Amino acid sequence: MSDSFLDGSDGTRSTSANEPVSFDDDGEFRHLDAWNSFQFDPPLTHTDALKLVSHADELGYRMLFRRADYSIEQIQEQLVARGPGSFLNMVWLQEDISVKEPPKTAEQRMAGRLQALAPIRELIITDPYLYTSSRKRDSQDYAASVARMISPALTDGLRITTVVSPSQNDETVRTAVLEHLHAHGRDLEVNVVESNDFHDRFWIADRERGLILGTSLNKIGSRIFFVDELRQSDVAAVLAEVDAIVGSTE
Question: Where is this region: Disordered (predicted)?
Answer without folding.
Answer: 1-23
